[in-house]
TrEMBL record:
Residue segments, region Disordered: 34-57, 647-747
Species the sequence originates in: Acinonyx jubatus
Biological role: Positively regulates primary cilium biogenesis. Also involved in autophagy since it is required for trafficking of ATG16L and the expansion of the autophagic compartment.
Residue spans of the TPR repeats: 155-188, 194-227, 407-440, 441-474, 475-508, 509-542, 543-576
The encoding gene: IFT88
Compositionally biased tracts (Basic and acidic residues): 720-731
Domain of life where this protein originates: Eukaryota
Keyword vocabulary terms for this entry: Cell projection, Cilium, Cilium biogenesis/degradation, Cytoplasm, Cytoskeleton, Flagellum, Repeat, TPR repeat
Primary residence: other
Protein name, per record: Intraflagellar transport protein 88 homolog
GO annotations of cellular component type: centriole; centrosome; ciliary basal body; ciliary base; ciliary tip; cytosol; intraciliary transport particle B; motile cilium
Compartments it resides in: Cell projection, Cilium, Flagellum; Cytoplasm, Cytoskeleton, Cilium basal body; Cytoplasm, Cytoskeleton, Microtubule organizing center, Centrosome, Centriole
Keyword Cytoplasm recorded: yes
Length: 747
């Protein structure tokens, strides 16, 4: 019958148009049926099978997820500095992980236990124990990990155990664990092995085994030289005193590659805006900051090593410094040579060789502006300390002209102007220094002193309070705040700040005596006595404190206790008769007349022309009934007659001719000048003790002003002197040790 045509219906089935049946056509399809390729006519799909949350597998999965979350939270808390929370999370993770292991063992075979999770939980727990300084617990946890043979590469954790033993100063065990870790780390992990060997070398240095340390660091420098190993190698050779090896190690340190880009990379070679944008973006990114830090660390190691070995590698430190400078000049750290030269000058200063220091610094006058400014700043500082203000001013000008934005130079210039009394101009220089560097504490301190001199007390107080916010425990600043409050007539605030001062320097006798003076002026004698007595205990040679204590005991009718203080005063000032008269007067008032008589006789032998002593001798001898009374009375009359004749001559001289009067006045003036110079220290004491026993009048209690002790700044005689910018620490008299080392370098 032939081939049926396409699309014809035969036996109820349409013949397909192609050999491959199209989508939507079925065997049972007939002409006119709906086109439904997705099978939507069959109705919705059956619902998904419900999740069985009570199944053991699901419980295990949820618990495992919770353990991972706890480990992450513990790590985050540690990174945020909350070590206690981190430890709690780590412990919680450990508890839940043990529950997880037990549940998994019940459901599946032991081979299916998640070892990675167990390892991370234990490792995190050990790390948190170590961070919280719970070293015994940390070591036990590390031991659990190391002894478990199922953990691969657990042996390297012995490095952490060695670190813990090192913190505990158990150096022998630290070396043992470092070596065990080194044995278990394959040679392909070169960087890790180098770090462990470096730890071994440092531990040998701590134990004093310098030869073993040298072997470790030499091996490191031969395999992968780095800055820390090179510096430690120099330290080890310095400890054993090997000069030649020190030189070689210094050359190795200089040759360590920094592996950072040159600064030229950050300079735009063209005007292409796209290139400029890229350079601007990378100029201060994290990578650039890391490069700067690495370079700064390298310079620090090299400078420290040079300062360490220069005095010992040659016959003199100057020759040693010259050798170091030559080596540095031939390396990639050429700019450090100038800093080494400045350190050479500072070493001369430490040796009190000021001339050589000045000569060394003067060599920089023809160098580039940065070095010239640094050298001129130091020279200005030196001349200022030697009170050669003209030279200090000229070098300060040179420093400012070389670098107008150098706060140290501006501060030193302000100091020279301050020394000449031009406080307004000095304040301008200090303000400019602060504008250039707001953290320049010397300028802030000095401007406070300047305002104090100008009697602008509110501004001075504001400066010192700002400085106190920066230097919380500076004794100088605390004293200045107290002093300003005292000048502002606010004794309560002054006392409060002085209390803070003695909490910082509890043994400072001047601060204690000042507190006593303030309490005395407020009428609180008991508190005043407490602080005066403490001051006397720490410094028993302060005449004003001794005078106040003696007068206090006399005022409270305890003359016997006052004797020891006046005896000490007589030892300190043996040429001042008033102290010995006070001792005798105390004996007399306490009823010990024989001791008083012996004391007066001793005073008379030392000072035969003292009228007051003779008067008391006559009175005592008369009361006791001694035969010497006539002898002393005769001497007293003779002295009084001589005194009367002298006074008549003075009066006649005043009434005489102009020429003779001027000559006599000149002679009298010279005599009085000599007396003033001889008794300048006791001048105020004489004025205050006029009413004390030793005169004809009976003793009467002194007023507050009479027994008040004057106060000298607790920071030494130079407390009002401006700080030099080059000096970063206060003087030894100002409660701290002074180091002229790096502190002489400008900021």
């Amino acid at each position: 019958m032939g081939r049926p045509m396409t699309g014809a219906i035969q036996d109820g089935v349409t013949r397909p148009m192609t050999a491959v049946r199209a989508a939507g056509f079925t065997k049972a399809a007939v002409r006119g049926s709906a086109f439904d390729p997705l099978g939507q006519s069959r109705g919705p799909a059956p619902p998904l099978e419900a999740k069985n949350e009570d199944s053991p597998e699901e419980k295990i999965r949820q618990l495992e997820k919770k353990v991972n979350e706890l480990v992450e939270e513990s790590c985050i808390a540690n990174s945020c500095g909350d070590l206690k929370l981190a430890l709690e999370k780590a412990k919680d993770a450990g508890r839940k992980e043990r529950i997880l292991v037990r549940q998994r063992e019940q459901v599946t075979t032991p081979e299916n236990i998640n070892l990675d999770l167990t390892y991370s939980v234990l490792f995190n727990l050990a790390s948190q124990y170590s961070a919280n300084e719970m070293y015994a617990e940390a070591l036990n946890t590390y031991q659990v990990i190391v002894k478990n043979k199922m953990f691969s590469n657990a042996g390297r954790l012995k490095v952490n155990m060695g670190n813990i033993y090192l913190k505990q100063r158990n150096y022998s065990k630290a070396i043992k664990f470092y070596r065990m870790a080194l044995d278990q780390i394959p040679s392909v992990h070169k960087e890790m092995r180098i770090k462990i060997m470096q730890n071994i070398g440092v531990t040998f240095i701590k134990t004093g085994q310098y030869s073993d340390a040298i072997n470790s660091f030499e091996h490191i420098m031969s395999l992968a030289p780095n800055l820390k190993a090179g510096f430690n190698l120099i330290l080890s050779y310095f400890a054993v005193g090997d000069r030649d090896k020190m030189k070689k190690a210094f050359q190795k340190l200089i040759a360590v590659p920094l592996e950072i880009d040159e600064d030229d990379k950050y300079i735009s070679p063209s005007d292409d805006p796209h290139t400029n944008l890229v350079i601007e973006a990378i100029k201060n990114d994290h990578l650039r900051q890391m490069e700067r830090e690495r370079k700064a660390m390298a310079e620090k190691y090299i400078m420290t090593a040079a300062k360490l070995i220069a005095p010992v590698i040659e016959t003199s430190f100057a020759v040693g410094y010259d050798w170091c400078v030559e080596v540095v000049k031939a390396s990639q750290y050429v700019e450090l040579a100038n800093d080494l030269e400045i350190n050479k000058a500072i070493t001369y200063l430490r040796q009190k060789d000021f001339n050589q220091a000045v000569e060394t610094l003067k060599m920089f006058e023809k160098k580039d502006s940065r070095v010239k400014s640094a050298a001129a700043t130091n020279l200005s500082f030196l001349y200022y300390l030697e009170n050669e203000f003209a030279q200090a001013s000229s070098y300060a000008d040179l420093a400012v002209n070389s670098d107008r934005y150098n706060p140290s130079a501006l501060t030193n210039k302000g100091n020279t102007v301050f020394a000449n009394g031009d406080y307004e101009k000095a304040a301008e220089f200090y303000k400019e220094a602060l504008r250039n560097d707001s953290s320049c504490t010397e300028a802030l301190y000095n401007i406070g002193l300047t305002y104090k001199r100008l009697n602008r007390l509110d501004e001075a107080l504001d400066c010192f309070l700002k400085l106190h916010a920066i230097l919380r425990n500076s004794a100088q600043v605390l004293y200045q705040i107290a002093n300003v409050y005292e000048l502002m007539e606010d004794p309560n605030q002054a006392i409060e700040w002085l209390m803070q001062l003695i909490s910082v320097v509890p043994t400072d006798s001047r601060a204690l005596s000042k507190l006593g003076e303030l309490y005395d002026s407020e009428g609180d004698k008991s508190q005043a006595f407490q602080y005066y007595y403490e001051s006397y205990r720490y410094f028993p040679s302060n005449i004003e404190v001794i005078e106040w204590l003696g007068a206090y005991y006399i005022d409270t009718q305890f003359c016997e206790k006052a004797i020891q203080y006046f005896e000490r005063a007589s030892l300190i000032q043996p040429s001042q008769v008033k102290w010995q008269l006070m001792v005798a007067s105390c004996f007399r008032r306490s009823g010990n007349y024989q001791k008083a008589l012996d004391t007066y006789k001793d005073i008379h032998r030392k000072f035969p022309e003292n009228v007051e002593c003779l008067r008391f001798l006559v009175r005592l001898c008369t009361d006791i009934g001694l035969k010497e009374v006539q002898e002393y009375a005769t001497k007293l009359k003779r002295l009084e007659k001589m005194k009367e004749i002298r006074e008549q001559r003075v009066r006649s001289g005043r009434d005489g001719g102009g020429g003779s009067r001027s000559r006599r006045e000149g002679s009298a003036g010279s005599d009085s000048g000599q007396n003033c110079s001889a008794s300048s220290k006791g001048e105020r004491l004489s004025a205050k003790l006029r009413a004390l026993p030793g005169t004809n009048e009976p003793y009467e209690s002194s007023s507050n002003k009479e027994i008040d002790a004057s106060y000298v700044d607790p920071l030494g005689p130079q407390i009002e002197r401006p700080k030099t910018a080059a000096r970063k620490r206060i003087d030894e008299d100002d409660f701290a040790d002074e180091e002229l080392g790096d502190d002489l370098l400008p900021e």
